[in-house]
Amino acid sequence: MQINQEKTEKRFDRHGNPHNRTKLLNILRGAVFPSAVIVVWELAARSSLVNTYILPPPSEILKTFLHMLATGIWEEHLLASLRRLVYGFFLTVVFAVPMGILVGKVRGFRHWVNPTLHFLQQIPPIAWIPIFMLLLGIDEASKVAVIVYASFFPVFLNTVQGVTSVDPKLIEVGHAYMLTPWEMVKKVYIPSAAMSIFVGLRLGLSNCWRALVGAELLGASSGIGYLIIEGRQLAQSDKIFVAMFTIGAAGMLIDFFLRKIENKLMPWKKMYQAGERK
Question: Which segments cross the bilayer (predicted)?
Fold first, then answer.
């Protein structure tokens, strides 16, 4: 009886509304403003209140998108960008998370690397693009390097923050059970720092996506950034807007799926956040 009652309670939010209904209402509320902007934009373009050469109506942008979708051009450029994103973000996780755990766990090592990392953190990724191109060429390696640099610091710093915030009592328990250093990392540090690490992953992935488009703007023959350059060179502003909307929509979807993965791997997160709100 108690289990059924708990399941029934979970279907309602704190205002007494069903969760599904609340989610639908939130989606509708979030769609009001962009819908209004699109309607006003379309009417202004149709009434010649704006220069349609620079600001084409949304209906024309939609036609261009559907044409690019039908011919396969849109998928080709999107997949090229996503491949670079996957390679770069994978390398970031491989380097940034272990290094963050090491720096957070070994305080002596932190003093050796902190000044250098703090200095590098101040340099924007776009400033490194010419150097990466000279060192790695104009092919994929330079773009992946920009992605890794852009996403490294959010992942690294949040991992360090999570590891240094581990409850000392948990560390003492680990030592009492005579866990090896690797077991301490696996059973104490990583589970305790998981939420902070995932925050860094989300920030890093967002930085990845923006830096990738920036790198493609400066030197690429495919990708969403290249679409923007091509649209500018051919004076096709509708193609530029298709690329811009793709960047925003793809970024939102990537973050959405990462949050879903986070909730699956850390089911206790919602209870933790609910406790904080109380």
Answer: 85-104, 116-138, 144-167, 188-205, 211-229, 241-258
% of the chain residues with pLDDT over 90: 17
Whether 132 has a pLDDT exceeding 60, the answer reads yes
As a CATH number, domain 58-277 is 1.10.3720.10
Q: What is the C-alpha separation between 65 and 72, in angstroms, rounded?
A: 10
| Position with higher pLDDT, 222 vs 266 | 222
Residues 182-241: tens digit of each pLDDT: 888 888 888 888 888 888 888 888 888 888 887 887 777 788 888 888 888 888 889 999
Contacts of 189-194 with C-beta under 8 Å, sequence gap 24+, read 189/101, 189/104, 189/105, 189/163, 190/101, 192/162, 192/163, 192/165, 192/166, 192/167, 193/101, 193/104, 193/159, 193/161, 193/162, 193/163, 193/165, 193/166, 194/162, 194/265, 194/266
Which residue ranges make up each domain of the chain? 58-277
Residue whose tokens read 């004076």: 235
CB distance 198 to 266 below 8 Å: yes
